[in-house]
Design goal:
- By secondary structure, the protein is of the alpha/beta class.
- The chain has a single domain, classed as HUPs (Rossmann fold), CATH 3.40.50.
- It is 32% helix and 18% strand.
- The protein contains 7 helices and 6 strands, in the order E-H-E-H-E-H-E-H-H-E-E-H-H.
- It has a 6-stranded parallel sheet with strand order 3-2-1-4-5-6, with helices on both faces.
- Strand 1, helix 1 and strand 2 form a beta-alpha-beta unit.
Length: 202
Amino acid sequence: MNLSGENNKKNLQISAYYGGTFDPLHNGHLSIIKNITENLLIRKLFLVPTGNPYMKQFSPIATPFQRLGMCKIGVKNKKVQIVDYEVNRPNPSYTIDTLDFLKKTQKDFCIKYIVLGSDAFNELHLWKDYIQLVKSYHFIVIKRIGNKLNKNQTKKNKLHIIKKLDDTNSSQIRNAIRIKKPINKYVSKEIEKYITKTNLYQ
């Protein structure tokens, strides 16, 4: 994937937004981050752990600050900036609000891309201010195995698809922990140590 995208908004630096529960942060997330920062011509990737993910059927098991902590110890990519805006708010986490916050506080950057999984992309029409999101941003969609993509959510020239790079998923890891199976092939040593120390997902 090579998405250059001309930046016609003064001399702002092109960036991307990647939000998620990260419950826990795992190698699949890290492979997505690596792929985007190495192949997409961006200067910054804003990584945003969700605070109160209203679209999720079940609430995250780890607290917002535990998930933020895992992002801080697990992501070492210099192009990534971890954002704690949502975890510090009790209100539901709306992507449009976080993007507006970043626009006001990160004035050297122009967020052009929103990174999300195909399951979330298929529900994009249910998001707050969906029309504004589709009008203002491009979408980098991580296509999950067996998940058919609704390409009608946005214009074709604003849709960039990445095949899932790693089959790891968070529920798989949580289930492994519950039945006392090793998780070292799914997460980094730092994350494994954090989960053990805090007795998460027991």
